[in-house]
Amino acid sequence: MRAEDTPLIRLEDYRPSDWLIDTVDLDISLAPQQTRVRALLGLRPNPAGQPGAPLILDGDELVLSEIKLDGATLDASAFTAGPQSLTVHAPPRRGFTLTIETVLDPSANTKLMGLYRSSKVYCTQCEADGFRRITYFLDRPDVMSVYTVRLEAAKAEAPVLLSNGNRVATGEVSGSDRHFAVWHDPHPKPAYLFALVGGALDHVREDYVTADGQQVELAVYVEPGKAGRAGWALDSLVRCMRWDERVFGRNYDLDVFNVVAVSDFNMGAMENKGLNIFNDKYVLADPQTATDGDYASIEAIIAHEYFHNWTGNRITCRDWFQLCLKEGLTVFRDQEFSADERSRPVKRIADVRTLRATQFSEDAGPLAHPVRPRAYKEINNFYTPTVYEKGAEVIRMLKVLIGADAFKRGMDLYFERCDGTAATIEEFLACFAESSGKDLSHFARWYEQAGTPTIVASGRYDARAKRYTLDLAQTTPPTPGQTTKQPVVLPVALGLVGRDGDLPLTTGSSAYADDGLIVLDRPSLSVVFSDVAEAPIPSLLRGFSAPVRLELDLSDADLLRLFSADSDSFNRWQALQSVATRALVAAGRPGTDGAVLLAKAAEIAGALDRFLREQGLADPAFAAQVLRLPAPADIAREIGGDVDPDAIYGAHRSLSGAIGQALEATLVGLRDTLAKKAAYAPDAASAGRRALRNEALGLIAIAAPEAGARLVEQQFSSADNLTDRLAALAAMTLIPGDAREHLIGRFAEIYASEPLVLDKWLMAQALIAEPGTLDRVKRLMQNKAFSLGNPNRVRALIGGFAANLTQFNRADGAGYEFVADMVIALDRTNPQVASRLLGSFKSWKMLEPVRKDLAQASLALVARTPGLSRDVADIAERALA
Ligand code: PHE
Ligand code: ZN
Questions:
Q1: Boundaries of each Peptidase M1 membrane alanine aminopeptidase domain copy (predicted)?
Q2: Which one of 6, 133, 215, 608 is least enclosed by Cβ atoms within 10 Å?
Q3: In this structure, which residue's CA is closest to atom 3 in ligand 1?
Q4: The pTM is what?
């Protein structure tokens, strides 16, 4: 497939389906190589479609073995069947049934889309368009059907048989070693939410009663022997169900809710109705095999998929252009859940770090696209940080702009009005326009316009008049296909910080609320605050109220004052990040003077020292975030062009080293004080103490390798949990030498039978910022811990390497060549994994000329490869454009 040959699908071309499918009866007889699927579809003409249109069903690599219309075998001339579609030329102009039989080979399905086998477990993945790999269908989200599914399999091979909805029958198939289960899902749903699971699985379960009194049986299914690691997921499920009842008024709506963990999965997890299927990485947890970060991700992703039951399933998307309708909103909901369960400011900081690292970098490069794309060639390439994370930011801004009450009323209206439908962004926004009485047409531009806006802010204080004037201006850089940009609606939450904290805000202007919110909805604007008793320092974008870059004309001294005095935790953290970013941007340009950076390091270290001594123990999770500098990749993005990764990494290393040296005594003392007393518990407070201790360990390792190596050794040997062990390993990867290699070996021995832990081991090595890493990665590909067929292994080792700023971007181009070769190899078996890996090239255009040419050559090599999947061809084409 060459990308140029693939049709572009456009939002403006949306037309309702000519046919609807009200009911689907599936009879699936599972066998490893020969699974028989019999589908009985109840069809009728769509009143909104073209009368008399042919029936064209989607397929993908399908083999038809039988077709009947209203029970009678169809004449060969009445239909055309190929692997990619099935057309009934002149169907009756009334309701009728179609019986279609297809035969599949789940064992040969390496794309992990449709029905496949993962470690002997049958499972499905149908979003976005995998259902058409199971049977011919109108595989589009606005065709919603009631499903009844009979599953049959050998009892020994698949004692557990699950599908969507409620189980209505089970039994033995007489005279055979087979059994069956029948599932019925009363809620009409699009095909992408269909799922089945069959296998020998263990489970943990719990009874749940919804707020409206419905009894629900919850269960988490895992590979045999792993039930001991399913408890946290189940616990998270119960908590998020209660939260959705309390905060969004949403109750669950079936008798059962099942979660299944599988070990081969292209994405994180999938919200199939009543049967969520998960990458096992986001289910399995115990203190020995999961880190604090894993516990937090599991909690968040369990919640995310569960929340989709309302935002995604009950209300689904009219078409895939509306993907952010379910994803952005559901990410917002899971972020809020985690914020309530843990620390709100720390969660916000972590989310903003991710947003900047993934979405801002996407928005700054050739793959930039709006939150609601206008056109696509391959929808699987649009499950992006822009649709998900920026999509969530848009919802967050909406809430800030219209206020929590109107937001709540708008959500209620949306649930009421759109329940059972396949909706659009317009319908969603209309609910909030109505609930708030505000015109949201300008706000809607967030869905159409790509690129990260920059706000330039400057302020003046007139001491005599006691007036403070704040000038704000916005611009958005051009992105592919959008050369000129319009202003967007930017909620700027702010405060004016004086010597003793926040000053009262008086503008006397009704356009700008005096309660700390400026709405910058035009190219520029000035706000005058009166009765300002002293020269203030503006604290802008509190809580990161808009997903923008901010250019502030504050001195480092002012920023350091905000760091100690701002009432907004996010901006305290941001202030110090800004000081460090500024220093690193200056030092990251080749040929800059190291002495300036060292002077800045002393200043930052001084502020940190005071902070750690006075407040380090008050909120260790926050302190850990404060201690962590912006990543080298953030600095590269901030520099934006002619980027030399080695110079940036070098600057980062010297700044960290200098800070670490200045703080060594404080950090060692802090680590002792924080040393654990109780047994491991995954709660946020305990995790925060470990995070701070381990952040300190990393700095010590850079600043004082010998002392660092000793601490690593101690921590590794005495740890009773993976978090501390892995942090020790990660710190040790910063210290070249035999001791490191020895520790890497020890780690592998301890976790030899734990693939998910070894993924972290693979990744830690892939991230080493040394020239030997490429060879190491190639060597590790031969290790038995690695497999090109498993997405988690590939993301850990190859994806880890592609995220290694200095080594992926080696000056000799060998990093690009390696990743390009891997993309080409993977594309033959799993195009989705391959195209995600190719996305690692998204920032190539900002590199200095030598690397830029080399990266382009590798991309071009991929683009030229014959027989590429649509997934990879599309990314290659857009990346090169
Ligand atoms: N819809 C899933 C989620 O966000 C993600 C996903 C997309 C999973 C496509 C598989 C395939 O929760
Ligand atoms: Zn989702």
A1: 232-445
A2: 215
A3: 270
A4: 0.99
